[in-house]
Amino acid sequence: MVNFEEQSAQTLLEHNQITKQQFEEIKDYRALNLFSVHNELKFLLYLSILLFTTGVGILIYQNIDTIGHTVLLGLLLIMTLVCFYFCFKNHEGFKKGEVPFSNPLYDYLVLTAVILSCSFVGYLQFQYEAFGTHYGLATIIPTVISLFCGYYFDNKSVLSIGITGMAAYLGLSVDPKHYFENEMFNNRTLSYIGLAFGLFLLLWSLYSIKINLKKHFNLVYLSFSLHLIGIACIVNLCDDFWFPAGIIMAIAAYYFYNLSFQTKSMSLFIFTVLYGFIGMNIFFVRIIDLIHVEDFLSLFLVLTPFYFIGSILGFIKLIKHFNKKTSNDSL
DUF2157 domain: from which residue to which, for each copy (predicted)? Predict the structure, then answer.
């Protein structure tokens, strides 16, 4: 890592992007070996929020008979309103561009408020059936709250909760285990819904960029879109209509592959290659099954180990190419 940083500084100097004095100042600064705990503190804050909200749920569960439902709902509502009060009080308000809090701690307070509000609505419906048999309202209301807070307070974590709520309202789950075991393979209609929802998120991301609406949310939408489209296509490759799914997978893989270089997103790149590789292999197997090449089956079995070794080497080469390309672009 140190050699890479030194090489980057040297490259900037050679391209006259920095002066010799600036180059020496960079070397002196790195010689101090300062260590940033920014990411560690953010992780601890996230962990503390998860522990707090989990503790609230456990407290409700263990004392539900002694305290009473009304009291617990009242306390939950008060905590939620207090969190939202301080969030609204210390934020500049909605703007189309990026508007962070003056103190980043309030971002985690927004996250806490949204999680508590989701718990409140869910508890209200579970215990009192406030929405009757319209169970979708218990999902869509927290989703609307999350999406509103995500855009108003410029919070990506809350936005992710909102997108997850939209998927849940449509009957989808963002958990791959549920995708393959409990949902999509047993109900192919959900695979079409997942594909449509993934395309919708992609189109919304492109539209948001066009109108300059929270363009920094782009990667969040693209990540959800990639997973939904990728998994839906893989599921449909195992169905009777596998050929159109293969075409869609190829187009999506090509698009997201190029997009990962534009956004310089390693996660987007890795998952694009992963979904593309899985889809390509399933498509290849379906072609073999279609043309009935049983006579060459023994040859395929012999070549299989070499194929996977070549795939691993190819993946490593792609990673190196991605790092080199994005590093050069950043310079």
Answer: 12-158
**pLDDT for 331:** 44
Q: In degrees rounded to 5, what are phi and psi of residue 58? A: -65, -40
Express each pLDDT in 154-174 by its tens digit: 999 999 999 999 998 888 865
What's the predicted TM-score (pTM) here?
A: 0.81
Establish how many alpha carbons lie within 13 A of residue 308's alpha carbon, considering only the half-sphere containing its beta carbon: 6
Distance CA 170, CA 120 (A): 21
pLDDT digits (tens, 9 = 90+) for 18-33: 787 877 777 777 776 7
Q: What is the dihedral of CA 180, 185, 188, 192, to 10 degrees?
A: 20
Task: With both helix axes pointing from N to C terminus, report the angle between 156-169 and 188-210 in degrees, rounded to the nearest 10.
Answer: 140
**Length reported for the chain:** 331
Q: How far apart are CA 311 and CA 286, in angstroms?
A: 19
